[in-house]
Amino acid sequence: MSNYLKKGRRTSLIGRKKNTKKHIDRMYKVLHQLDLVAQAMIQSGVAIRESNVVEEAAKYTDAEIGQYEKMILLSKVKQVYDELGLEIKDEEE
User: Fold this and answer.
1) Alpha-carbon distance values, 49 to 16, 32, 71 (Å)
2) Ramachandran angles phi, psi of 46, nearest 5°
3) What integer pLDDT is reported at residue 29 of this predicted model?
4) Which residue, 4, 22, 46, 73, has most beta carbons within 10 Å?
């Protein structure tokens, strides 16, 4: 194999690794931002429910909260509630 072809393969491999690293960095940035939003929501004292989690999160971030982010927020809030011995209230209460 010629050096020209080897260099092209190495360049494409390096490019893919950089793209993967950027993708992972963005993912961790979103997770950190959601962690801060969940902490702020809990400290506000408002009852967090599945129906109002998106509206409450919108008060603390400009990022769009999709289904994936909503489930992450609910799991983070539930984790803190479990540590404190609290429960997420149902709609009827």
Assistant:
1) 40, 21, 11
2) -75, 140
3) 93
4) 73
* pLDDT tens by residue, 56-67: 898 998 888 889
- Residue (of 28, 24, 57, 23) closest to 40 by Cα position: 57
User: The domain containing residue 66 runs over which residues?
Assistant: 26-84
Tell whether 43 is covered by a domain: yes
Share in percent of the chain as helix, strand, coil (round to 5): 70, 0, 30
Helices 67-84/3-44 angle, 10° precision: 50
pLDDT less than 50: residues of the chain: 93
In a domain, 45, yes or no: yes
Indicate whether 71 belongs to any domain.
yes
* Predicted local confidence at residue 88, as pLDDT: 66
